[in-house]
Every structure is written in C-alpha cells, then in structure tokens.
Amino acid sequence: MHSVTTKRLSLIALSLEQLESQLIDPQKLEVELGLSDNITSNKNSNSELLDALPSWIDRVKKNPNDFEWYTNWMIVDRSEKKAVGGINITRMGENQEQLLIGYHIKQDYRRKGYAIEAVKGICNWAFSDFRIEVILAETERSNLPSEALLSKNGFEFFEEKKGVNIWVLKRPV
Question: Which pTM was predicted?
Fold first, then answer.
C-alpha cells in the first residue's frame, strides 16, 4: 500500500480494487483500511466524489504500474481512524513533469487544518520524484478558503482560465 504520513494524517493511495470498493461497497473498504466509522459510505459521501470515482478508476486502469500518480488518496485522521477527505492527483505534461492536484474535506472536518496538512504532505511526496517540476491546482474564483490554503502551502497564482484560477508550486531549489 502506498501511503504518506504527516503529523496527524495518513494519505492512502487507493488502488483500482479500493476505488471500485469505494464506489460499489464502501463498507468493505472501511473494514480493509481499519476505519472506525462509515465516513466513506455512499450516504456520507458527497455527489462530486462519487461522480469522480469512475474517472479515477479509468485512469488507474490505464496506469497500473504507477497508479499512485493517477488516483485519489484518502485522507485519514490517524488518531480517530476516520476518513476526513481525499486528495486526487494526475501526472501530466509531455515528460510527466507536472502534477495536477485537487482536494476535498468532508463538511464536518473543515477548518481544522486537514487540507493544509494533506496538500503539504502530497506535495513533499511528489517532489521526492526528481521528474516532478511543477504542481498545479485549480480553484473556482469565489473559493477564497481554497486559495488561502494554496497560498499557505507556497502556491502562487498563475492565471485565470474560464472562471477558474490556476495556482502553481514550483520545485524547491
């Protein structure tokens, strides 16, 4: 299992089988990951997450040998053993030198620093691969908390494109 550990969190790269479980039988995934509640179940998941699962499954099927670069990483609070959100990544660019990230935190867990910590953890992990030069993130123009989170993690505003702000984090020198 691919994972990244931060002060409070485990970021777990979901395999093809785990993504399929999250879509079809979330309780099976909860048991496999040793979670203490039903936070990943369909009744507790937002529709955007469920809508995104098929595309993550497709990307992981196309990249089985390095799926961790194309999947959703479950954000787990280690002390509570609860899934608090997810962070998805997609490797891109002509030489696979760019990474696009997106993240979501469950409503009950927002404003507790989970997203800041998860983004920092995944960026540190990504830059451990010498091929990654740039990490990109997109936010809706009206999502000021997300923009503040990116700024706190060293991202800089790059450009606006069709109502979406694009932020960039360059590899540290």
Answer: 0.91
Secondary structure of residue 37 in the 3-state scheme: coil
The ranges assigned to domains in the chain are 3-170
Q: Give the fold, CATH level 3, of 3-170.
A: Aminopeptidase (3.40.630)
Can you read off the two tokens belonging to residue 66?
Answer: 């390095």
Beta strands 164-170; 134-140: pairing state: antiparallel
Over the chain (173 residues), what is each successive 10-residue block's mean pLDDT? Answer: 94 96 87 74 59 92 95 95 94 90 92 96 96 95 92 96 94 89
DSSP-derived pairing of the beta strands 98-105 and 134-140: parallel
Question: Distance between CA atoms of 109 and 159, rounded to whole angstroms?
Answer: 30
- Phi/psi class of residue 162: alpha, beta or left (left: φ > 0; alpha: ψ in -120 to 50)? left
